[in-house]
Amino acid sequence: MNSDEIYAKLKPIAKAYLPDDVSEADFTRNSDLTKEMNINSAHLIDIVLDIEDEFDVEFKNEDLEKIRNLNDVIDLIQAKTV
């Protein structure tokens, strides 16, 4: 699966957890999930769990430390599904 296909599946997962004060129009692949998009740590874990289910992958703690934006998630998914 290429990065655009992965992103198409990721975006709705992450957008579901955006707080009310964040516009979906401002959400991009490079948006920092916690700093720019105000996604709290509990919701970030929910996003990761949803991603694991959607892509049938498992993230380790060291993987979670690398996630800042959706591009980071795309890279991890591609590395785990090769």
Element pattern in H and E: HHHH
* CATH fold-level name: Non-ribosomal Peptide Synthetase Peptidyl Carrier Protein, Chain A
Q: What's the rounded overall pLDDT mean?
A: 94
Low-confidence stretches: none
Could you tell me how far the N terminus lies from the C terminus, measured between alpha carbons in angstroms? 9 Å
Shape: globular
Q: Structural class from helices and strands?
A: mainly alpha
CATH superfamily: ACP-like
CATH class: Mainly Alpha
Number of helical stretches of at least 4 residues: 4
Radius of gyration: 12 Å
Tally of separate domains = 1
How would a crystallographer describe the biggest sheet?
Answer: none
CATH architecture: Orthogonal Bundle
Record field, number of beta strands: 0
Helicity level, as a percent range?
40-55%
Strand % is under 5%
Tell me about this structure.
With 82 residues, this protein is mainly alpha-helical. It has one domain (3-80): Orthogonal Bundle (Non-ribosomal Peptide Synthetase Peptidyl Carrier Protein, Chain A), CATH 1.10.1200. It is 52% helix and 0% strand. Helix 1 (3-15) packs across helix 2. The longest helix has 15 residues, at 41-55. The chain is globular.
What attributes characterize this protein structure?
82 residues; mainly alpha
Helices, strands, pairings?
Elements: H1 3-15, H2 41-55, H3 61-64, H4 70-80
Helix pairs in contact: 1-2, 1-4
In short:
The protein has 82 residues and is mainly α.
